[in-house]
Amino acid sequence: MNLHDQRNYTMLFDFYELTMGNGYFLTGMDKRKCYFDVFFRQVPDGGGFAICVGLEQVIDYINNLKFTDEDIAYLRSKNVFDEKFLVFLRDFRFTGDIYAVPEGTPVFPGEPILTVVAPAIEAQLVETYILLTLNHQSLIATKANRIVRAANGRPISEFGSRRAQGSDGAVLGARAAYIAGCAGTACTMTDRDYGVPAGGTMAHSWVQMFDDEYTAFKTYCELYPNAATLLVDTYSVLKSGVPNAIKAFREVLLPKGITKCGIRIDSGDITYLSRKARAMLDAAGFTECKIFASNALDETIIRDILLQGAQIDAFGVGERLITSKSEPVFGGVYKLAAVQDGDGEIIPKIKISENAAKITNPHFKKVYRLYEKESGKATADLLCVYDEVIDDSKPITIFDPDYTWKRKTLTDFTARELLVPIFRAGKCLYQTPTIGEIRSYCLGQIDTLWDEVKRFENPHNYYVDLSQKLWDIKHDLLNKANA
Amino acid sequence: MNLHDQRNYTMLFDFYELTMGNGYFLTGMDKRKCYFDVFFRQVPDGGGFAICVGLEQVIDYINNLKFTDEDIAYLRSKNVFDEKFLVFLRDFRFTGDIYAVPEGTPVFPGEPILTVVAPAIEAQLVETYILLTLNHQSLIATKANRIVRAANGRPISEFGSRRAQGSDGAVLGARAAYIAGCAGTACTMTDRDYGVPAGGTMAHSWVQMFDDEYTAFKTYCELYPNAATLLVDTYSVLKSGVPNAIKAFREVLLPKGITKCGIRIDSGDITYLSRKARAMLDAAGFTECKIFASNALDETIIRDILLQGAQIDAFGVGERLITSKSEPVFGGVYKLAAVQDGDGEIIPKIKISENAAKITNPHFKKVYRLYEKESGKATADLLCVYDEVIDDSKPITIFDPDYTWKRKTLTDFTARELLVPIFRAGKCLYQTPTIGEIRSYCLGQIDTLWDEVKRFENPHNYYVDLSQKLWDIKHDLLNKANA
């Protein structure tokens, strides 16, 4: 029934993954265990946090990894790969470990949100799909939550499918938007496959199809008396749309005792029109009629029109959500953090850059989120070496990794490990929560953030610190590289 | 073998398509033939033209249209649709006509690029997928061609999969980019499924995997002596990367008589680094070594660094191409242009708006492109009523639809109909060209545009005019609506 979770996306990799893979194979490095981190460097739109979404699709992808005979034949035709390597690929499967933050977790720049521990070829091959999936859905979730917060309790319906960047852009974008707080979607496939409630009423074409607007409205009310939301801007909102809607409500709904109904305004000055429409509806006795607004909305416009007193009960948001128009790229990267040597020792690796922000955090890591006990609020994330354990019964001193004299001692706190095991030796040991559970978890976790972190403009920089041990290892590597 | 052309995307529609469809069905309007146009209002990035791509996927979609039993069960569970309508959907197939411009055609605001003529339910149902497919691929093609033109003959490789908005964003985006002039892609799946040449060499992880940069380079040259492009910025481009590359070229390639090789610079000041690297390579005798550049490039940056004398032979372009970052939405819309009445007469329909640019062009239409005979250049597009015929052996006077006193008489021209029949009575009668043919056609058609239309900033507004007959019908409808 679900198209998505059965697809074989093995071949959705950047070609260099396999030129490298073939090289590892031929030089005997293919079994070398590698540690790769997914992390990002900047929150889109200058926000204070992002929301990590897409893990369920990563799991499906890994479970379905398999080169078909046609894939091997295609790869052979490229005249790049050794025949022995192609034979190896025929039986390829993922045998490594994956750790990740649960879907819906608020995440911050610089911390691993997913870690792959696997032989070189495997770890390299899965790079592209993992990145594109987490990047895409985290982007849309992060944007959707901004829009949800701007609407201040009013429901947001996602309905941007037609402007999405491809079918998964639409279907999985709608999934991410729901996890991040949207009330539902127009995308029917997302409902069928992921249980995100889909809904919708009419387009302008419905109104145009009839000889006049009133007949279009009346017919719709007769068909759907309990879900009559009428699109009132095909001709003129105030001169014809709202009066015709009131007439249709009065003639069709009232005799049935129905007072719950709606209108949608999709163009023009929404603030002005909604206030006028509200007054007209109230004067006619339709105080329970909800006003929906749509038309190129985003968090900035929604905040602005609400500030001006727009009388809107719910919003439909399309292209600016489903493409994250103001910032359509989530810059998650996949970087080597360590390799295992012949004796099984984990050797930390670092990627240097003249741009200090681009220097990676080396080593196989853990991430702890530290919550203040009294308020329940998240105070800092702490990156540790994999074998460190934080004991939250004792005070801990954290420090800024750049300005190390900036220190803070936490006493009454709880520490929670963010990265949980997803795959172990190629086997998925993670029970994916339902979409409703993911959504509740996501909104609950956002509640643990201070308002200062949630601010739209100039939010507080949430602390992502390194343990002393990890900081020492990193600076050791930096000093050695510079020597 | 090709995942994409067999997928059933019937359920990828906005829910309101079926609430309307159910309404048409129950009110006996379902058999009413409707004419819907796809058109757009603005070229992204302020460009002078867009490129229409995605028709092949629309054809696949229409051919695969079918509600499964599971789909019907899902729809029934929504408690919205009449049981007779659900029975009807079980045997649903597309029975209408589709006309479209061939893939790769340069197109302009306001003209139909695809027209659906079908019974109301069918025409309505296909709206979402047709729009999302044409919007997505046209967006990427239009952006890619800007980047290709900025590079002024230097090849562009698309490699943005990891930052694409979902899997089709990556796979079909790479297809669109190739049609619009990119030389190839990193996306292996796009090669397998669409024959877009995929390639790629190494990531930073390859270099980090070895004990030192030189060993990484030497090993790669040994493995791929005929395709040795080395990534030189893992540590320091000028201090280690280029010297180590030269050493590896000299020790591995020269003894084999190979002088063709390459380096890639993926960070830092590309203009400065490429000039220094060029000088170092030339001084070492590697004048045939190509320099590739990547790192958040787009048409603006490429023009700028070339203007400053960057020594770049080819570019790799990622996120800013594959998401069309500077403008990630192509605003194609799907609007009712006419309906057939009981006598088979075509009744033109118009959508009014206070914003004059949003008023639609009514009626079932043809589009002619008028080419100047002497230069072969495209001069204007002319929208006509479906039964008009342009005789290009006689002079024709075209006029600005807003400022009708602006007139121009064309004498030596040829007229070409842009919209060609794709489906007739549900049967596809269009032979899709190969991707190579589409690409050649696209680049050839762009050559028919005047430089003034191809300018990046403030391009000439290409004429999209209405025939006198169509203009009269439109103004008649406007006057009636305002009365």
Defining key terms:
homodimer; 483 residues; alpha/beta; nicotinate phosphoribosyltransferase; TIM Barrel; 2 domains; 37% helix; 20% strand
Short description:
Chain A has 483 residues and is α/β, with parallel strands linked by helices. Chain A has helices at 15-26, 55-63, 69-77, 83-90, 120-125, 127-150, 167-179, 188-194, 204-209, 213-223, 237-253, 270-283, 299-307, 319-322, 435-447, 451-454, 468-482; strands at 33-39, 50-52, 97-100, 105-107, 114-119, 156-158, 184-185, 229-231, 261-265, 289-293, 314-317, 333-340, 346-348, 365-372, 378-385, 396-399, 407-410, 413-417, 420-424, 427-428, 463-466.
Notes on the structure:
- The structure is a homodimer of 483-residue chains.
- In chain A, strands 13-12-1-5-3-19-20 form a seven-stranded antiparallel sheet.
- Chain A has two domains: 4-140 and 328-482, nicotinate phosphoribosyltransferase (Alpha-Beta Barrel), CATH 3.20.140.10; 148-322, TIM Barrel (Alpha-Beta Barrel).
- The mean pLDDT of chain A is 96.
- By secondary structure, chain A is of the alpha/beta class.
- Chain A has 17 helices and 21 strands.
- In chain A, helix 3 (69-77) packs antiparallel against helix 4.
- The interface between A and B is large, with 104 and 104 residues.
